[in-house]
């Protein structure tokens, strides 16, 4: 796969920046609104929510910044894949909410499914050297 030059390199960089910064900001928000996030997680029945929220914030920060910078991209993308697979059906269970909350949960569920898809793409690309990246990797 040729990603070293031409518009493909810049498009991959733009995608990494847009995706990674949104994910990292979401992780940062776990710390900026920890009380609210913990309350929401408790309402959704998350066990040990006061531990799960900061842990998930770290996963999102690591995953997002890892994608942006190209630092351990396989680990970063894999962490995001696991996060979205575990969190999406638990936190956005639109099939279990009252009718007036259903559309918002469907939207959040589908957004997370799209982010899962992008995480899978970055996981697949993670074994390649990325242009404009630090390219620190275990693989």
- DSSP helix count? 5
Molecular shape: elongated
Helical content band: over 70%
Per DSSP, what share of the residues sits in E-state strands of 2 or more residues? under 5%
Task: Give the low-confidence spans.
Answer: none
Q: What's the alpha carbon Rg, rounded to whole Å?
A: 16 Å
Notes on the structure:
The protein is mainly alpha-helical and 139 residues long. The protein has helices spanning 7-32, 34-43, 49-69, 73-91, 99-125.
Summarize the structure.
With about 140 residues, the protein is mostly helical. The protein has five helices and no strands. Helix 1 packs antiparallel against helix 3 and helix 3 crosses helix 4.
Feature tags:
elongated, 139 residues, mainly alpha
What is the strand and helix layout of this fold?
Elements: H1 7-32, H2 34-43, H3 49-69, H4 73-91, H5 99-125
Helix pairs in contact: 1-3, 2-3, 3-4, 4-5
